[in-house]
Amino acid sequence: MNFIEATKSGVVRAFDFKTRSSRSEFWYFNLALALVGFLISFIELSLGLISQFDENGPIYTIYVIVTLIPCISVAARRLHDRSLSGWNQLWVITIIGIIPILILMMLPAKENENKWGKNPLI
Predict the structure, then answer these.
(1) DSSP character for 107?
(2) Nearest to 20, CA basis, from 88, 109, 81, 108
């Protein structure tokens, strides 16, 4: 899956918590969100809405709220690809849980088919 396809899929399947997503879909979608967030911050800085680049302006705050559900959804689908429940992404609340979640997001699919469907790469 390429960058454009992954971004479209992340947006279109924003409320899909029952299927699987490939590594490329997960990482490209998150890259797209980061690039758009960077662009929004740059625009806010240029317009004087924020005084430093590490502040969050009003447009960026709205952007984060709007993209929260798609981010959670694509992460859940990526965990499904590893044969894990999407609820496992709550490990990040413990702070130390960020490390195993990042590792899981980098690993390939565990099975060709599991209870969340067929491998998205097949």
Answers:
(1) S
(2) 81
Residue range 58-87: mean pLDDT, rounded? 95
Q: Is residue 113 helix, strand or coil?
A: strand
CB distance 82 to 100 below 8 Å: no
Report helix, strand or coil for 121: coil
Is there a contact between 107 and 81 (Cβ–Cβ < 8 Å)? no
Backbone φ and ψ of 8, nearest 5°: -60, -45
| Burial group, residue 93, by CB count within 10 angstroms (0-12, 13-18, 19+) | exposed
- pLDDT band at residue 7, thresholds of 50, 70 and 90? very high
d(C-alpha 4, C-alpha 25), whole Å:
10
Q: Of 119, 122, 117, which is closest to residue 16 (Cα–Cα)?
A: 117
Q: Note the pLDDT tens digit of each residue in 76-122.
A: 999 999 999 999 999 999 999 999 999 999 999 877 888 889 888 86
CB 106 within 8 A of CB 23: yes
**Each residue of 13-29: pLDDT tens digit?**
999 999 999 999 999 99
